[in-house]
Amino acid sequence: MSRIGIFYGSSSGVTGKVAEKLAGLLGEDRCDLFNMEEDFVDFDDMLKYDHLLFGCSTWGSGEVQNDWRDPLLDLANEKPDFSGKTIALFGAGDYVAHGEQFVSALGILYDKFKARGATLVGSFPTDGYTYEYSFAVRDGKFVGLPFDKINEADKTDERLERWVAVLQEEFLPA
C-alpha cells in the first residue's frame, strides 16, 4: 500500500485541522502530514510520494497562503519533474469577504504542478457554493475541495466525506 503525503500551509490553523481530518478519513496509517512552514525542506520531500494532497488557503486578492510562496517560486526555478505523481488539492476560502477570488489559490497550485507533469484529480462540484469568481474553477468544477470554515463550517465535514469518496475512486492506490 502506497503512502500518501499531505502537505499544507495554515496561517490560522484551519487548513491544518482539515489536513488532519483528511488523514483520519483516508487512514492515518497510510498518510504522512507535513506543515509547509515547519516540515518542508525541498521538493524531494514531495517527490518520494506517488500520491499527494496539497492544502492551501487563499489570501488577499487570490494569493496562495504564505507558506506556499517560496516553494512555488522554487518550483519555477528548480523545475522538478512531477510526472507520475497524482495530486489532489484542498483549501480554505471566505466567500463573504473574498467571494471575488474564492479559493483561487487552488487554481494557482493546479497550474503550477500540472506544468511540472503531475496528474491532478479530485475535482469537486460548484453546486452549493456561493461566490462571485474563482480561478480554481475549470470545466465547471473546482480543481479540488474548497471549504469555508468562517461562513459554512456546518458543511465542511459532509463535503470532506464526499470528496474522500471521490478520491478513493480516482486517486487512492489499492
TrEMBL record:
Keywords: Electron transport, Flavoprotein, FMN, Transport. Pfam families: Flavodoxin_1. Its cofactor is FMN. GO terms for molecular function: electron transfer activity; FMN binding; oxidoreductase activity, acting on NAD(P)H, quinone or similar compound as acceptor. It comes from the Bacteria. Residues 4-168 form the Flavodoxin-like domain. Low-potential electron donor to a number of redox enzymes. Belongs to the flavodoxin family. NCBIfam families: flav_long (TIGR01752), PRK09267.1-5 (NF006739). This is Flavodoxin. It comes from Azotobacter chroococcum NCIMB 8003. The lineage of its organism: Bacteria, Pseudomonadati, Pseudomonadota, Gammaproteobacteria, Pseudomonadales.
